[in-house]
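FW: tagging you since you asked about this chain on Friday. Here's the raw sequence from the shared folder, copied in full. Didn't touch anything.
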Amino acid sequence: MGKQLSQYGFSEVVGISAVQVKRKASELSWLRQGHNILLFGASGLGKTHIAAALGYALIEQSVRVKFTTGTAMVQHLQKAREGLGLEDALKKLDKYELLILDDIGYVKKSDSESQVLFELIAHRYERNSLVITTNQVFNEWDNIFGDNMMTVAVIDRLVHHAEIYQLEGESYRRKEAMKINGKSGQLN
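HL: got it, structure written out here
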């Protein structure tokens, strides 16, 4: 069994609520309209947990969902492009009503790799939904795409039909480490 929404401590963060996410898991019109969800926040706030749990809840309702890291998707599409099969690879992803790209902030690759990520986002625009998690705010996305015009075009497509959540709080992993190492405030 995968991540569950009931396992996430919504009271530990600000910027998103259980009601908002549960609504997305039960009211599927956003998927049918090709809308997106963008989850921003520092490392350790549970963006991946929320995305995975939402995906799992949708799978339980027979929605086709694919969860992957941004880096793995870029590598897959880059390999397809090198074999002159990028368009086919993008079309194969159309079978998923929701594509979850986790941690796209770590995609800092060559121009050609940034280009395939752009192609994916442009291909899905207004057709199929994306959930994207990242620890980088929009004004840092030039680090991902390397070109300001491409960055602006990507952001424009993503936010046109999107709900954007900025999570804030203390890292779950840090809190767990503090519990394990005692309440001294030091990490060993």
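FW: The two ends are 32 Å apart (CA to CA).
HL: agreed, and Strands lie at 13-14, 36-41, 65-69, 98-102, 129-134, 162-169.
FW: great, closing this out.
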